[in-house]
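hey so u asked for the seq, here:
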Amino acid sequence: MKEKKSFLERPSVQAILAALLCIILGLLIGYIVLLMINPAGAGNGIVSIIKNHLNYPTKPAQMKYLGNTLVKTAPLLMCALSINFCYKTGLFNIGAAGQYVVGAGACLYAALKLGLPWPVCLLITIIVGGLWGFAVGVLKAYGNVNEVISGIMLNWIGLYLVNMILATVKESTSPYTKQIASTNKGALLPSAGLASMFSNNKYVTIAIPLSIVIAIVIWIVLNKTKFGYEIRATGFNKEAARYAGMNEKRNIILTLVIGGALAGLGAAFLYLSGYEQWSVTQSSVPSMGFNGIAATFLGGLNPIGTIFSSYFIQHITSGGSYLDKSIYPSQIADLITSIIIYLCGFVLFFKLTLTGALNKRRDRAGKSGR
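ran it, structure tokens below
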């Protein structure tokens, strides 16, 4: 008879405990850094980061800026799902950042240059992001090119290509693209009544619930379908998957296509809300794709867990803007996020340590009961 696992032995419980440990240690180290810069304001500084929108005194203001955090959580969640989905096949999709970039270029060009409505813009974005992932997948499947190398190269290719393309739709006196609201209102994602829930924040759109629905769908696909089983089997051992009759090359390519589509869609969720404009002079890849790495590992490589970890990462990142800039740099929030990313590498070690301790306790209990 199979022995029933205790509460602490459950994988989901261990994943949550590991994530909480990463968060606590990350915040603690961030607090120590604040102490080193200026001890007098360190306590207020770390509290300001944690409070984020709660720093505002009135409820309407709190809800409005909570909406802003959620607006940026949706694209972060999509990038995290992209990395998560590809990781199940044993692939580290660091190219999600570039797929996010070309997704931004595709949706903005479709909206500002072609004047297309938002559903068509989303479809074009999905196709372009998928094609960018397809390039990485083909190189991996048929050329055995490491996806990290090809992904990083394509990140920069995508950045400068998008800069050139979007230069045709930028403001005449600024490096930023034209505002969708004044150029093509039909390309803006609908609010569906959500804006009124966040003090008439016009940037809160259907992107937020859509990203959550997509996360749930990804979980169902990975855990409840034949395709998901093949994806995970390929990730565990592609040679064994091939021996079992699975087409591992097809699975690798298809996984990266889906990953690229998810990251690209994340960019559309942000830029088609009108929240941001693209600068055609930027020389660095947006951090959204890289922050997705932290979100997916902090979420225990589970699409549902990634929903909550994406919000937390964005909450901390946005909270950095409330630090006293005359004393502390706002990059402290990025430092905390980076530390959490680093600590996520020890999640497996934490799980193994906890499992070992529980096994020893069970063995001692078994010996004393004889």
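Residues 69-286 form one domain. The two ends are 19 Å apart (CA to CA).
lmk if thats what u needed
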